[in-house]
Design brief:
The two termini are about 35 Å apart. The protein is built from eight helices and eleven strands. The protein has about 290 residues and is of the alpha+beta class. Helix 2 crosses helix 5 and helix 3 crosses helix 4.
């Protein structure tokens, strides 16, 4: 018969092994992503997580990344001044803007900042209206041409802001768009900045804008590019390029139902990656390697 002492230590060893296997199984299962569609790829092209990646969905203001690329590709002067006009008013959803009609004037550069950082729809509409001689129709055509050039086969763009639910894409296509937009230093800089002060009025009045992604203001995060989006048809959306657990990740999260769900998903992803890294370190140490 086993001694009581030996039986005791065998029981402890069994409990430890069981808990280790359970934790490893949880890690292998992947992060608990709750957005309706998601795709996470690292800088080596390794797919870490995928969910409904080919479903075509409305993408709301994620559209503004394509808008920004088209403006920058057009090589129009970024210091040109643009005044918000009645044409820029949102008559589809009547979203609010602090850029007053026929009063607010900003450089094209600062219109891009306001559109990308705080997702202002009038700013985006003004950029679509003024970039090409043919106005918004030519601009939307250029957005779709850019999507085709990037291999975004299941995507369609209908306006510069993302207010139209006909702006649609898939998580697979948006990874391509996210990677393409990361090649533009201006887009990386603007979308990873926490706040911006605009001077749109002749009387010197200023407007303070904050990034719609709170993680860019969190010192624990290294966010290199980000964009949020929301309309009822799209749910809550977030795309990000960030360094997590020493890996550069491209993250697409679509159709989340809770306001905080995309950010919570990214936090769960980080925790999962850190846990996996800790387990790999412990495994190496335990093997004596």
């Amino acid at each position: 018969m086993f001694s009581k002492s030996l039986a005791h230590w065998l029981a402890i060893a069994f409990l430890w092994l069981s808990s280790t296997v359970y934790v490893s199984a949880v890690a292998l299962a992947g992060p608990d992503i709750r957005s309706g569609a998601a795709l996470v790829i690292d800088h080596n092209g390794q797919r870490l997580y995928g969910k409904n990646t080919t479903d075509v969905r409305a993408i709301a203001s994620i559209t503004k990344l394509m808008m920004a690329m088209v403006v920058l590709d057009a090589d129009v002067p970024l210091e040109d001044r643009i005044t918000i006009t009645e044409q820029d008013r949102d008559r589809l959803r009547w979203s609010r803007s602090r850029l007053r009609i026929d009063q607010a004037t900003l450089s094209r550069r600062d219109m891009l900042r306001v559109a990308l950082m705080s997702s202002d729809n009038r700013a985006a509409a003004s950029l679509g209206r003024t970039t090409f001689a043919g106005g918004t129709p030519d601009f939307v055509a250029a957005m779709n041409d850019k999507a085709a050039a990037l291999g975004m086969r299941d995507s369609h763009f209908a306006d510069a802001s993302g207010l139209d639910a006909a702006n649609q894409s898939t998580a697979e296509d948006l990874i391509r768009m996210l990677h393409a937009s990361s090649q533009y230093p201006f887009i990386r800089e603007v979308t990873s900045t926490g706040a911006f002060t605009a001077h749109p009025y002749a009387d010197g009045g200023t407007l303070e804008y904050r990034n719609t992604n709170p993680l860019v203001r969190d010192a624990r995060w290294n966010v290199e590019l980000s964009k949020t989006g929301y309309i009822s048809e799209a749910g809550r959306c977030l795309v990000m390029q960030a360094v997590v657990a020493k890996r550069r990740l491209y993250i697409v999260l679509l159709n989340a139902q809770g306001k905080r769900t995309p950010v919570a998903d990214v936090i769960r992803l980080r925790n999962w990656l850190n846990s996996s890294a800790d387990q790999r370190t412990a495994s190496v140490a335990g093997s004596g390697g």
